[in-house]
Amino acid sequence: MKNKSYIGLSFIILLFGIWAVPKIIDKLSGGNLEKMGKAPAFELTDQNEKKITNEDYKGKVYVLEFFFSTCPSICPIMNKNMKKIEEKYFGNPQFGIASITINPENDTPQVLLDHAKSLGITSKNWHFLTGDKAYIYSIANKGFNLYAGQNNKAAGGFEHSGLFALIDKEGNIRCRKDEYGNPIMYYDGLKDEGVKAIIEDIDILLKE
């Protein structure tokens, strides 16, 4: 009877291992990324005065942010962290970045070109985008649900999220889950942990 009990227990442990190990690996690797719906469509102008739409990113994994060139607070940190991501995938035609200004009245294509040069950006797949202010705010606040607004009391006169959005090759917003199993939706563009997580998940999406 004891031998049968041991065999039964061993079988249960084996079954648990078969079920649990892939899930543990998934959690550690950032796998099993959630689809949070389609990213909103957009049509804007980049630093080279070229019209860029979401269709230009079709077939690419891309990261999107909202910023402005004269931001004195969180943008320099976001720029630095986004550049780390850009350097990791430099020259990869399946990867891109979209940085959309929330101060288009100042951030003309020429201003954005100068800003890109000041950051040392040479990638053809990183577009700094500008356009109509109300249109951009609608993309941010209604399309992505990433806050952007004008506030004369805020540093630089504008407020916005420090989060990065991750979009897959089919135009879906993707993300990992937190420790409780809830989708994080977006990645913290101000912390090393957020940058590490998004790079891990870009790697996953590039293989899809």
Automatic annotation (TrEMBL):
The keyword Metal-binding applies. One of its GO terms (molecular function) is metal ion binding. Residues 33-200 form the Thioredoxin domain. InterPro entries: SCO1/SenC (IPR003782), Thioredoxin-like_sf (IPR036249), Thioredoxin_domain (IPR013766). Disulfide bonds join 71-75. Cu cation binds at residues 71, 75, 160. Keywords: Copper, Disulfide bond, Metal-binding. Belongs to the SCO1/2 family. This is Protein SCO1/2.
